[in-house]
Amino acid sequence: MHSIVLDVTMRQKRRFCGKELNFDWCCLSCLGLLAVEAFVGGYGINYGRIANNIPSPDKVVELLRKSKIRNVKIYDSDHSVLDAFKGSGLNLVIAIPNELVKDMAANESRSMDWLNQNVKPYLPQTRIVGITVGNEVLGGQDQSLYQPLVDALKNVYNGLKKLHLEKEIELFTPHSEAVFATTYPPSACVFKEELMPYMKPLLDFFAMIHSPFYVNAYPFLAYISDPEHIDINYALFKPNNGIVDPNTSLHYDNMFDAQIDAAYAALHAAGYDDMEVRVAETGWASSGDQNEAGASSENARTYNFNLRKRLFLRKGTPLKPKRPVKAYIFALFNENQKFGPGSERHYGLFLPDGRISYDIGISGLLPSSASSSMLSMKVTNCFLPF
């Protein structure tokens, strides 16, 4: 098989001597308390909102709690979302979008202003546990953002330090697989040489602040790039012969694990063996254009069901068996106003009215007629916490 991957509050509470205490946000670091857990369990979801027909943020919080999904990532810092998450107990990652990266890089005071507007007023009632700076910047088309990305991250981190929040809020930037020169076999994966002048200082910084390496891993995109040579069962976690990495003799029975280990191999080659790999996005489209092979409701249901089951087991990969995989699923809803191929608008696990799009063992706000005959399982209600 050749290359398989596209370049493509609840209020803050602490226990002390057996008693539950509430603290103002500024006291968390001052008292030396444990940092907020940035990712509980192994399962999270991306809450995209490029749509005109999805539920209000307060209804979304109700949906997330009903479906027992604890970790949520958004693509901005919309105050209506931050307000809705107050007192919910959900872990929320917010974002500084690409269009603000240069501004954040040029002026540390701008980063401080952003934190004072979008983070400080909401803590601890809204559990903001992470901030992403940019999305798929390195390897992307706008090369003018490459250098500012590192400077922006440093300025935001310095702002968090001034607020004594650097140990409470995780800082990261998600990468597409366009940062890799090759991904097959997984052990041969390396970063593109032309990106290393930007990637190395970024990784040095993340190593210093103990941030994970986040990658957007999509077996769906790999499959539609070459459906003649990629076994769809391998992409969907279904029974298949898998692949054996000739360099490590490790066997892979699914592409998702292979993509993660490819990222670990690239980090190893660059000298960052201790850095954890997490998945910022993964999913499967339930519909798409005619040339998007495999985009179907049945395949989306199969992928997301099997992925959820795999993450629930909290196991590692063939290369890192003792490091449980953590992943944010893409996405909560279909986003009917997104640009691009048809698949871009069909990744949602839920319909606009809060019903499930297809049955993977989670509950919606309303009863659904989605078939569960193929995917019933005994652990449906055992997925907390995610």
UniProtKB/TrEMBL annotation:
Gene3D superfamilies: Glycosidases. InterPro entries: GH, Glyco_hydro_17, Glyco_hydro_17_plant. It catalyses: Hydrolysis of (1->3)-beta-D-glucosidic linkages in (1->3)-beta-D-glucans. GO terms for molecular function: glucan endo-1,3-beta-D-glucosidase activity. The chain crosses the membrane at residues 21-45. Its EC number is 3.2.1.39. One of its GO terms (biological process) is carbohydrate metabolic process. The keyword Membrane applies. The keyword Membrane applies. Keywords: Glycosidase, Hydrolase, Membrane, Signal, Transmembrane, Transmembrane helix. Belongs to the glycosyl hydrolase 17 family. This is glucan endo-1,3-beta-D-glucosidase. It comes from Panicum virgatum.
